[in-house]
Amino acid sequence: MSILSKAHFHDEAAAFKKLEELLWPNGPVCPHCEGKERIYTLDGVRSKASKKNPEGVVRHGLKKCGHCRKQFTVRVGTVFESSHVPLHKWFQAAHLLCASKKGISAHQLHRILEISYEAAWFMGHRLREAMRTGGLAPIGGHGKPVEIDETFIGKKEGVVKHPNARGYAHKQTVFSIIERGGEVRTFHLDKANTANIKPIVDANIRKESALMTDEAKYYEPIGAEFKYHLTVNHSAGEYVRGGIHTNTLEGYFSIFKRGMKGVYQHCSEKHLHRYLAEFDFRYNNRIAVGVHDEARSEKALLGVKGKRLTYRRANQVISFCSP
Fold first, then answer.
1. Which of 121, 158, 160, 132 has the alpha carbon at shortest distance from 264?
2. CB count, 10 Å around CB of 63?
3. Extended beta strands in the chain, E state
4. How far apart are CA 74 and CA 16, in angstroms?
């Protein structure tokens, strides 16, 4: 017996029951008026008849609120709302996305789940939206080592590299902070410089931390505000000096870049922030900190509430520095 043989991965009624257990641990809550009392279950209700389903389809998990008199299911007000994909396939997709260390492409979801490519692509972005977090407390403090660094991937849209040009001006800039033994937070920057990096560091790292960076000049004024600022000189071939290094972050970048190159081969800038959230989420809920695959996917599903992502919103351009 495997994890994917569990009922909620292939039975629609079981999938609704499982999602209700996750999102309503203390009983159903009306998404329209937030009422908790006088919630009634409507059994045996079917949708309108159609050519495909002459007898209609059973409306699993249908409830009615005694306060506002409106009907709802646990899908209302979540990334699943209005989706034509069966809920049990959403559970399969969430597990596949969370259990795959480098992610899973929309093409592969399309083949495994036997849904259209368009539905698989949108499904992936809805789940990544569920993984996004914000308003988190700063990390580090008490002399804990926190590494910061940047890396470059893909190509900026509309930017052509001159044959004799040097540097990464034509690449998309990704900046990360990581607390050793703790969590990572990754951001999309327009350019790696002090002006763009400092606000992120100020909001996300306690000044009592031991800041670890490479020799880049734009880290100097940032590091001056910390209790400790320790550097290694990568350009001189120095990568480790005692406990001073940014190798934890380099390891994270290695997984991230292999996933972006091997799985998500054509990522536009307007969608990059969701892919960053996906890799951050899997790292922050990894086996090494005691989170196994099933628990990781369930934790991702806890983030579906209040994130109604439409196709138009999925294609909006997101401003830089958005986590």
1. 121
2. 20
3. 39-41, 63-65, 71-72, 145-153, 172-179, 184-189, 210-213, 228-231, 240-241, 244-245
4. 7
Between the alpha carbon of residue 58 and those of residues 48, 64, 79, the distances in Å are 10, 16, 21
Record the pTM.
0.90
Domains recognised in the chain with CATH numbers: 81-131+290-323 (no CATH), 145-284 (3.30.420.10)
So what's the pLDDT on residue 226? 98
How far separated are the first and last CA of the chain, in Å rounded? 38
Residues of the chain with pLDDT under 50: 311, 317-323
**Structure tokens given for 130:** 């569920």
pLDDT at 243: 95
d(CA 22, CA 107): 28
What pLDDT is attached to residue 317? 40
pLDDT value of position 158: 67
Residue matched to tokens 């734009």? 218
The answer to whether the CB of 103 falls within 8 A of the CB of 97 is: yes
